[in-house]
Design brief:
By secondary structure, this protein is α/β, with parallel strands linked by helices. It has nine helices and six strands; from the N terminus they run E-H-E-H-H-E-H-E-H-H-E-E-H-H-H. The longest helix has 20 residues. It is globular.
């Protein structure tokens, strides 16, 4: 049975104020195959240890960028992490093959409702469209970019809804540690959540 190692790169500048993210993180399973790495906890002064981060990436098969949607992008520390850690001739370029074949996706929380994120909604673009720069970054680094796991409407969510999302996240993580990644199948879905809920209902 395959045992994928997952690295969760968590970036939330106001973690203590986000009940949804607190629950998502609290539900992350204790597993030798899952590493939770809080970037704001690790680097409060933004002094990223590039070699340490690269070593972590090399040891894992699946990478997750877990962050809130900040002005249609990610918080500044995660952007700095991308700028510094994904070095030429290590992550990309002719000799940059360190991440070749690894899978990556994002876990996104947003206050906006799903219906807002479309051509006719107030946010004008879908979440996957807004995440295209991350998708292209992954492609340049020869990684398999997968659809995001998205939690919408965080500002209006009740505790039961939060718990259900957190439970699904935990189950997804365990599933990914124990099963091969079928990128083609997953990429037929808009969100990672939708794909996984189908897997559960068919299982």
């Amino acid at each position: 049975m395959p045992q994928n190692k997952i690295l969760i790169l968590f970036a939330h500048p106001l973690f203590e104020k986000s009940f949804v993210n607190q629950e998502l993180v609290r539900h992350i399973p204790f597993s030798n195959h899952i590493t939770f790495h809080d970037l704001y906890e690790e680097y409060p002064e933004f002094d990223i240890n590039v070699k340490h981060e690269q070593n972590l990436l090399e040891k894992h098969d699946i990478i997750i960028w877990h962050h809130p949607m900040y002005w249609y992008s990610c918080p500044p520390l995660l952007k700095q992490w991308i700028d510094m850690v994904l070095e030429y001739d290590w992550a990309y370029g002719k000799n940059g093959n360190a991440l070749n074949g690894k899978s990556i996706f994002q876990v996104i929380t947003t206050g906006g409702a799903k219906e807002n994120y479309c051509a006719t909604g107030k946010d004008r673009f879908s979440i996957p469209e807004l995440l295209e720069p991350f998708n292209q970054t992954a492609k340049v680094c020869k990684m398999n970019y997968l659809p995001p796991f998205v939690v919408h409407g965080t500002h209006k969510m009740n505790e039961e809804e939060v718990f259900n999302h957190a439970k699904t996240y935990a189950e997804l993580l365990l599933f990914l540690t124990k099963n091969e990644i079928n990128s083609e199948e997953i990429n037929r879905n808009f969100y990672m959540n939708e794909w996984f809920l189908k897997i559960k209902s068919n299982g």
